[in-house]
Amino acid sequence: MMSDHMKESEEPSNKRVKPVAKSNSLTGVITPVKTPALKRIGQSISRSISFRTEARPLPPAPLRSRPKASSFPRRRNSQCWSDTVESHDLTAKEIKRQEVIYELTQGERQLIEDLSLVKKVYYEPMLKLDIMTESELGQIFGTLDSLIPLHEDLLSRLERLRGSEKTVGEVGPTLMNWFPCLEAYVTYCCNQVGAKALLDQKKHEKRVEHFLRLCQESSFSRKLDLWNFLDLPRSRLVKYPLLLKEIQKCTPPEHPDEDTLPDALELIQSIVAEVNKKTGEAECQFYRRGLGYLEESQRLPEIQQSRFLYCHGELKNNKGQRLHVFLFELALVLTRPGEDREGGQVFNVYRQPLPNALINLEEIPDGEAGGGGTFRGAFTGGNDKVKNCFRVSSRGRSKAHPYCLQANDSFSKQQWITCLRQAIVQSRDRTSQTRQSQFSLHPDPALYHIAELSLSSDTDMADHTSR
Q1: Which pLDDT tens digit goes with each residue over 257-267?
Q2: Domains of the chain, each with CATH number or no CATH
Q3: Are the C-beta atoms of 285 and 304 separated by less than 8 Å?
Q4: N or C: which end of the chain has fewer CB within 10 A?
């Protein structure tokens, strides 16, 4: 569930560290609604649409459990480049190069099919049947419609590169010229956080839940839900660097692509990093707006100054209560999920948030009771060992009591510990740099003495945290 952001080295999967926001969807619980019109559409869709696409679920995410193998069916007709040619006299390395380029081309074709499908069988029917308003659909689907011609353009360029023997010579310049188009992904990906929240909220409505379930059960969906389809562009984006690296490995030194591929790889990596950064900022802003404060003292300036989230997800306190915890750039915030008057999700701040620069982190060994033995009674009935717990406390803030927290498993616990350590160190470094900057503007010997004492205290506390 780590906020996840996209990484060039790995295609998004259930392993991604992103919000582990608990779904309140009533799917599977609500009695199916008898809607003949919806049923007829589903039947006609199943009869008229068949294609050979593959998609992997790409939930954005807070801290998640260990990834499970995908149960979604693979594409029916996977084809390799060598299946499309009758004969060739290429070396094994060049064959591999052609296979990767063919995979790039086919991936574009399959993405176009999927995005066109989403528009045809989700957006248009829901608008026509007034299942959602045009405004709601616009928020959920965002600028997805504008991505289709963008990828059609690349597909057209790649197909023109294939010669009479169905081989591609130079691909680097084509990619270099096309990659800047992917800056359009900033808008689409930044919209996804709010889109997912609204979609989850609308799933509580019977007509919406019934329509989406009907689509998911139809053959054209390959058992993927709407969000899996909406998240495909992000999955595709982070795959480009991987494909380029593979092409580069199979490109001989004397090949014309040898000079352009490194530049193309650097360009796409910078675009992915920029999209990732902007998406993280949008996610941070979205969840900041969703916080509900019970006391004015909870509105720490560190929360509003934070630009991104390290991670967020579900943890239990020492009373066994489920909390949704946000580790912002500069503050740790414990919340209790709830709903506003419109049915939207809100996170009510629980107790006093902690500035990261003041956090003391203590890992609680398995078997020890956290906080006066209350963990043992809350989670195990007093019999088994307490596991996967850690404690956070704050120095210098009288209202901030220590918090003993329990993760779902050891994997999730280690993710939290790693993120907290990183947040603490970076926040203290930032604080130290700010102080040094202030002292350079006001060279008062007394202030230097105070600074030395403060920095010494930070060092001692960091040593305690590492232990």
Answers
A1: 999 999 999 99
A2: 89-290 (1.20.900.10), 293-438 (2.30.29.30)
A3: no
A4: C
